[in-house]
Amino acid sequence: MPDEAGLLAERDAIESLARLVHQAIPEGFSTGILRVSSLAPTSLLSLEVRDDAGRTDSVRTRGPFAAQAKALRSLMYRPEVGTWFSFEMTVTIAGSVTTRFDFDDEPEWDVPVDPVAYVKDQEEFPRDEAHQPDWLRDRLAEGRERRAAAGS
Which residues, listed in sequence order, are joined to residue 48 by a DSSP beta bridge? Predict the structure, then answer.
């Protein structure tokens, strides 16, 4: 469990990311939904905006979104337990913020991710085997085999 300073740093990182989402909501839209899938060497971010009538659109995310998400992922790391693989943040134009972090399910990607990326993530954010879902153990085994075959 993080100490008070760690919790405050997490809160500050969430608030910074929420401000970025809020600022990116175009006029005429009421909600921004940021979705992030992340491993240490790669991430996928998307920002969808919605209006009150249910119309949706995509908004291009910029570098600060990825940097803030990466910082948040690092701050939320717990030794032996790991950190989240994906999260969703919903921000309304009125300033309401909700978040959902997923520590256990495989992240969704728009293109397949090399299993070596999971090995690199495990090296940066180690999880003991008791906290590794079956799918993660499988990706780690695949990644280690690919790494060994490549001689690196």
Answer: 33, 58
Nearest to 124 by CA among 90, 81, 74, 76: 74
CA distance 152 to 147: 6
Domains of the chain (ranges; CATH) run 4-109 (3.30.500.20)
Q: Dump pLDDT digits (tens) for 33-67.
A: 999 999 999 999 999 999 999 999 999 988 899 99
Sign (positive/negative) of CA torsion 114, 120, 125, 131? Answer: positive
Average pLDDT for 72-99: 97
Mean of pLDDT values over 4-22 = 93
**Residues pairing with 56 in the sheet:** 50
**d(Cα 65, Cα 121) in Å, to the nearest integer?**
19
CA distance 105 to 74: 18
Identify the bridge partners of residue 78 per DSSP, sorted by sequence position: 82
Q: List, as own/partner pairs, every contact residues 96-99 make where C-beta atoms lie below 8 angstroms and the sequence separation is at least 24, other chains included.
A: 97/14, 97/15, 97/18, 99/14
